[in-house]
Amino acid sequence: MPKILVVEDERDIALVLKNDLKLEGYDVDAVHDGLDGLERARAGGYDLILLDVMLPKKDGYAVCRELRAAGVRTPVLMLTARAQEAEKILGLELGADDYVTKPFSPLELRARVKALLRRAAPATELVETSLFGDIEVDFARAEVRRAGALIETTPIELKLLSTFIKRRGRVLTREQLLDEVWGLNSAPTDRVIDNHIMNLRRKIETDPQQPRYIVAVRGLGYRFDG
Ligand code: CA
User: Fold this and answer.
1) pLDDT confidence of residue 121
2) Distance between Cα 107 and ligand 1 center (Å)
3) pTM to 2 decimals?
C-alpha cells in the first residue's frame, strides 16, 4: 500500500485529503506545519508527499528545497493557492514533481497522485547495477562479473543477490527470502535456500568459508554486508 505524507496547515483540507486518499487505498499521515513535514519526510518511508506552499514555521518551497538538498527523492506534489505561473515554476525548480492549484477537485488530485506514484515506482524498485569488493552486478543485463570476468549465475542466484542488495545491511529471514525469491508458488526447504546461498557465496566471496558479503545471522537468517 503506497504511503503518502500530507503537509497542510488547514486542518479541514488536510482531513478531506486524508479521508479521500484513504478511500483510494493509500496509507496517509498528515502533519500541519513545515518543520514537522520536513522531519517526517526526511525520516523516509513515504512514496509521495503532498506539500502545501503556505505553511507555518517553514514554507513548502523551503521544505522542498531542503529535502532535495538532503538527497530525499520522494516525489513531491505541491498544493499551491497561487495562480501565478511564476510561483508554480518556482516549485518545480526547487525539486517538486508536479503541482495542483487550490481549490482542486478530488478527481484531479487523485489523477495526479496516481500518475506520480506510477512514474516513481520503477526508479525506486529497480537496482540497475551494484558494486562491492571486486564484484560487479548488472541486473539489466543479468550479468555478474568478478574482477571484470563474467561469472555464471542461475536466475535464483541473481534474484537472491538483488534481494540482498536492496536490503543491504538488514537481516533477512529464510521466510522473507522464500517470499521474495521463490514466490508463493513453490516452497523450498530451509536446506534448499541454504544450498543456493552456499553456491552464491562460492561465486562472490573471496573465502566462502569466511563470508564477508552474505553473512549468516545465527537463529535469524542472513544479512548482506557488501
Ligand atoms: Ca496553507
Assistant:
1) 63
2) 20
3) 0.55
